[in-house]
Amino acid sequence: MKLSIWFIIGILLFSCSSENILEEQIDSLNQTYFPDNNSDNWDTISLNELNWNTAELQPLLDYLEEKNTKGFIILYDGRIVVENYFNNHSVNSNWYWASAGKTLTATVAGIAQDNNLINLDEKVSTYLNKNWTSIPIEKENLICCENLLNMTSGLDDSLGDSISPNNLKYVADANSRWAYHNVYLKMQDVITAASKTTFENYFENNLKDKIGMTGYWVKLNNLNVYWSSTRSMARFGLLIQNNGKWNDTQIVSEDFINKATNTSQNINKSYGYLWWVNGKTSYQLPQSQFKFNGSLIPNAPDDLFCALGKNDQKIYIVPSKKLVIVRMGASADSSNFALSNFDNNLWEKINTLIN
Fold first, then answer.
1. Which of 27, 80, 251, 293 has its CA 20 to 30 A from that of 10?
2. CA distance readout (Å), 148 to 53, 104, 198, 222, 285
């Protein structure tokens, strides 16, 4: 009789233990996953587990290869669902972010503000001194750090990439005109002056190393361009998708991320702080003052926001679907500065996979 009682108790304890293990496994799948900072290991989740349309994966990959893609990753809540490399690219290959890397500068600016080194509402000349442009002082003093991040400096965007004072000329008062302009790089100078170290060092110590990114900055023709692996681009996207938090560490404040990834001014509704924002009623594009009606990427979810770089470098983030999608490569079709027809066409393909 005693043996039977203990046997029953053992069965009950084993059952409870098994249930607890199962619950822990389910809980872990329901939590955002972060890859280890010091390892190449990255957890995956299958299309079948997500009930995605597996038959649509190969057509998507064929399309990506046809469109000169080099690296492509889809993360679901941090785990890799799709990771493919094409055209002599590999998991360890580096490629340029182009203007998608503007979002790195925006994020570092947010970190510097969180650390009380800068104030985005403060005029740029507070950090760079006066005459950092060639415009009248009273007009220069209207330009604050936020204007560098949301492209409303009012400076002439038709004079090329140089941001020397002689090439920064007046067109309109700050906050009255949106124009895609290389002057955002002055924010890197602001961070350098405020932190008393180089922008690259501040970026490395406060962002790159904290989320396990690799890569490097290359200065070329008045630009400072980031190069990295596709996975490093995905790590950054995951940080932003998780509202600036990596594991248990808040790298950049959630308040800043909310401001950066939503409409930042009343001129171009589809632009935040160097991030592009979907689902708005109109948008402007680089090198134009024309306003287009409708959403930036009609085929994409309305809550999508994205980093867009020359020749179709992409980071798409969709909070409602827990997605980060990264595309690196040569231009899909013709050369472009940010948005292209490829965005909408690619999302048509992605939708057949995930819906």
1. 27
2. 42, 14, 19, 16, 16
How far is it, in rounded angstroms, from Cα 239 to Cα 207? 10
Give the domains, in start order, of the chain with CATH numbers: 54-354 (3.40.710.10)
Q: How many residues does the chain have?
A: 355
pLDDT digits (tens, 9 = 90+) for 142-171: 999 999 999 999 999 999 999 999 999 999
Q: Is the pTM of this model over 0.85?
A: yes
| Tens digits of residue pLDDT in 23-32 | 444 445 579 9
Pair of tokens at residue 63 = 């399309």
Block residue for tokens 């009682």: 5
Q: Cite the beta strand spans of 154-266 per DSSP E.
A: 216-220, 223-228, 245-246, 249-250
List, in order, residues 6 or more apart from 113 with CB less than 8 Å away.
Answer: 119, 120, 256
